[in-house]
Queue: 4 jobs
Job 1
Amino acid sequence: MKPEIVRIGPEHLAMLIELFDRIAVDPEARHFHPHPFTPLQAEIRAVYLGPDIYSLMVLRGRATGYGFLRGWEEGYAIPSLGIYIAKERRGTGDARRLMNHLHEVARLRGASHVRLKVHPDNIRAKRLYERIGYQFHSALDRGQCVGLLDLRSGRSIEFVHGRAGPKSYPG
Ligand SMILES: CC(C)(COP(=O)(O)OP(=O)(O)OC[C@H]1O[C@@H](n2cnc3c(N)ncnc32)[C@H](O)[C@@H]1OP(=O)(O)O)[C@@H](O)C(=O)NCCC(=O)NCCS
C-alpha cells in the first residue's frame, strides 16, 4: 500500500503535529531545519492559504512524509524544495514519489527550475537528488550544497556566485 499525497489543510493538524514531534528528535534530520518543528509551526502550515506548497504523505491515517515548495510567496520564480520521509518509509521509493509530485506541481505553476540545499554530510539525501537529476554547484552556500533541477530538460542553469540567478529562493 502506498501513501497518498495531500496538500496540508486544517484537517491534518493532529497528524502534522505528531510528525513534527518525530522530526524534531530524529538524529537523521539534524541537517533538515527549514523551520522549527514545533506545534506552532504545524498550526501555521495547517491554515496556510498562500502560494507556497506544503504537502503530506499519509498512510493509514498517519503522516509518513512532509514536503514543500516555498519561495513563491516571497516573489521568487524558482521555488526551494525540502522533504522528510519517516524512518519506517525510507528506502521504499516514497522520497522519489514525493519529489516527483512536487516537481510536477512546480512545472504546472510554470517554474523552470527547482532549487534545494543539502548538507554535504547528508549523503543519503544528496545521492537521491543526484539520481533524480539535480546538478550541484561546486561552491557551498553557508556550508550547504546547492542543487538545481531543470524541469524542462534536466540541465542546470548557470550559477551566479553560487546562487541560481537573482530569482531563486535563497532558503
Ligand atoms: C533524505 C530522505 C528524504 C531520503 O529518503 P530515503 O527513502 O531515505 O531515500 P532512499 O532510500 O531512496 O535512498 C536514497 C539513496 O541513498 C542511498 N542510501 C540509502 N541509505 C544510505 C546510507 N546509509 N548511506 C549512503 N547512501 C544511502 C540509497 O541506496 C539511494 O541511492 P540509489 O538511488 O543510488 O540507490 C530521507 O532519508 C529523510 O527524510 N532523511 C531525513 C531528512 C532529510 O535529511 N531531508 C533532506 C534534507 S536536504
Job 2
Amino acid sequence: MSYSLARQLLSNPIIKETNWVWGTKEDQERYMAIWLRDKFQCVYCDRDMLESYDTHYWFSHIDHLLPRSYEKYKELQNVKWNRVLSCCSCNGLKKDFDPDSESKLYVQGSLTTSDANREFWLTKARDFVTALRDARTKHFELEKALLRSVQLNEGE
Ligand SMILES: [Zn+2]
C-alpha cells in the first residue's frame, strides 16, 4: 500500500483542520496509511472507526498485533505491518495476548513477515478477542439485569 494517498489526504485542508495532525510529517503519513490499509475499521471486530466523532477521536487506537510488551517484539514497535487499527474495547480485551505464542512464526531480528503469517495472527487475535467479549458480555447481562432491578429512591 502506498503512502501517496495518505500524503494526498493529509494535504487536504479539511484533514489539516483535524486531530490527524500530530507528530512529524512521517508520523502523520504512517498513521493515515494504517487507517487506509485497515479500511477505517477495527481489525478485530470490524467496527467502523469513522462512525462518529467519539468513535474516531476517543475510541480508536493503534494496536500492536505482536504485543510490544514482550521483549522479543520490542523491535516491531514502529513496524507498519505490526501496527493495526483497533477500537478501544478490542485493544483492552486483547491486551498483551500473543497470537504467535504457539506458532512461533516470527523470527526475531528479521523485522519482516509474510502476509500469510500476518493474516494467521490476525485470525488468532480476532478469535481470542471475540471469545473473551462473548464470555464477558454474558456476565455483563447478569450484572445489568441485577442493577436495573434495583429500585432507586430519591433522597437515599
Ligand atoms: Zn473492535
Job 3
Amino acid sequence: MKIIEKITSHYSTILFTTIILSFIVIPLAFTQKFIIDEDTQKIQIELEEPEIDFSANYKNINLLHTADKKVENVDFEEYLVHVVAAEMPVNYEMEALKAQATVARTYTLYQMQNGGKHKEADICDNSQCCQAWISKEKRFEKWEDNQQEKWDKIRKAVYSCAGDIVTYNGKPIDAFFHSNSGGTTEIPVNVWGGSNFPYLQVVETSGEDEYSQYYSEVEYTTSEIEKKMKENYKDFSIDWKSKEPIKILEYTESNRIKKIKIGNKNISGVEARKIFELKSANFTYTKKDNKIKFQVKGYGHGVGLSQTGSNTLAKQGKDYKEIIHHFYKDVEIQNIKDK
Ligand SMILES: [Zn+2]
C-alpha cells in the first residue's frame, strides 16, 4: 500500500528508478560476481570474474532518518558531505577530510552490497548503528562562525575525491574507523570476534598523543565497581582485601586489554570498556583506598582508520591516498565514477 501511495506522488520517477535498480539491475550485476561459502556463509568474490559495476547504485542512496523513521532518497556524494560534517572536525587538514570521505563512501557501498542493517533503507544516520549524518541546519547551529566557509571546505573535500573507494581484491572493504588509536590500531577479531580481515592489521601512528582524545581517566569507588559488575553479572562477588581483586590477565596484539579478572569474573577488555564506560579497551588502573582509577589511551574501538592519526599524517604532508594506505594494508583506491 505504501509503495502505491508513493509511486503516485511527485517522487514517482526517482522511486521507480530506485526500485528498478534495487530489485533488477543490482542483483543481476552482483549474482555473477559473488559466491557464498557454504561452510562459513561468508560472501567471497570470484576473482576470475570482471570487476563489479558500481555505477548502478552509485548516484543515489536511501537514507533512514532515525529520529522520525523517514527514508530520504539522496545524492550519494551530497550524503557524504553530511557524513564528513558529522564525523570529523572541520578544522582538520583537507587530506584528512578527504580520507574520511573516501572511507565513508567505501563504508556506505559495503553496507549496500552486503545487505546493510536496514530493510527499508541503505543506511541510517546514527553513528552507533551505521555512520553519523548531520543536517546542514544543525551543523550551522553548532558552528559558531564562518559556517558557509566551513561547509564549503567539507564539500570540497568530498567532491575532490568523488567516487574514490577503498578495495581489497576488487571489492569495497569494511572500512572501519575511529577517533584516536592511542598510537596503535586494533584488529577486529579482538573487538567483535569472528574471522579476520586481512586489510585490518595492527598499525602504529605517531602523534596521536597531541589530541585531547588520546588520554582520559575514569574513577569509581569500590562500591560503584561492584554495582556496575552486578548489573551485568548477578553472581558477581569480590574480596577487596585479597591480593589482586582486579588483575589484567592478557593483552591483545595492540596492547589493549584482552582479558581482565574482576573479583570472580574473567571478562574481556571490550566488555570492561562497556561496563565502566571507558573510551577504549586500552587501559590500566590504579587502586588507592576505596577508589579505582582507570587510565585510558585512545578513543573508540581502535580498528581501521584513526581520525586524529589521519590529521597528523596530513600535517606531515601525506595525501589522502597515503593516509588510507597507512591504515589499510594491501588495498587499492579505485574510482567508481570511471566504471
Ligand atoms: Zn543503521
Job 4
Amino acid sequence: MCNEEKGADRRLFPMFYPAGLRNIFKYEQKCLERVYMRRVVWYAGKKYYRIVPFLVIGYMLVIFAAALAGITQAVSPTAMGRNLIVIDPGHGGYDPGAITSQGIYEKDINLAISKKVKTKLAESGMKAVLTREDDRDYAGGGSSRKTKKQTDLDYRISLVEGLNPEVLVSIHVNASAGGNNSGAEAFYQEGSDQGKALAECVQVELRKIPSMTKRVAKSGEFYLTRNTKVAAIIVELGYLSNPVDRRKLLQNSYQDQLANAIAAGIINYLAGLK
Ligand SMILES: [Zn+2]
C-alpha cells in the first residue's frame, strides 16, 4: 500500500526528485502520507514537507491571475464607458453660436460652464470628458457653412461613440428674436426613453435654481442626439437675447449654480439606472 503510494508520487513529480536527492532519502521511510494538499515524506523518523511543488504551483497561479488581470484591462474600452460622462461644449472655433451686439459669444459660455460641470462631477467621484477643452471646432476644410457644421458634429459624434459613455450632455445657450424668453431647458430626442429620463432629471435640478423659470424637459430633433446611441440631451442654459439671462449667464456664481444642477441631474439619472 505505502510502496504503491510512493511509486505513484514519484511518477507524479519526477522533476522535484532529482536522482541525488532520491539517493540521500533512499526512501527508507515506509510510508508517504497526505496532509491536506501537502505531501509529507518521512525520513529516518523525521517529517519533511515537500513544499517545492506547491510553491511552484502557487507562483504559476499568481502569474496566471496577473495575466488575466492584464487581459481584462486590455479589453476594457467598452467597459471604459461605464459611468463615463461626455460633456459637449456646443460650437467653438469658427462657429460662435449665438452672439450679441456686446460681443458675447455663446461658445465661450458653453465652454466655461462645461468645465465647471466636469469639475463638479469629479468632486462626486464621476469621470467626465469634454469634446473640446478650448476654443476649437472640428470642421476641417469644409467649404460651405452647412458642410462645416455637419463635419464638426460628425466628429463629435465619432468621439462619443469611441468613448461609449453612459450619457452625453451638450451644453448650449439660446437666443430668440423677441428677447422675452428666459430660463434653462433640457431637450431630448423624440422617442428616446433614456434621453427623456436624463432630460427630466436635469430639468428638475435646473428648476431648483432661485428665480429660474419653471420649464419642463421637451423632445426635439437635433442632429447630435439623433445620431448617438447613448442617452443624449441638449441643455439650453438661458437666453443671450434676454437682458436678465445675459447678465446672469456671465456671472461666475450663476454659472456654478447651472453646473451644479446639471451635475446633480446626471448623477440622479445614473443612480436611477442601478
Ligand atoms: Zn448653441
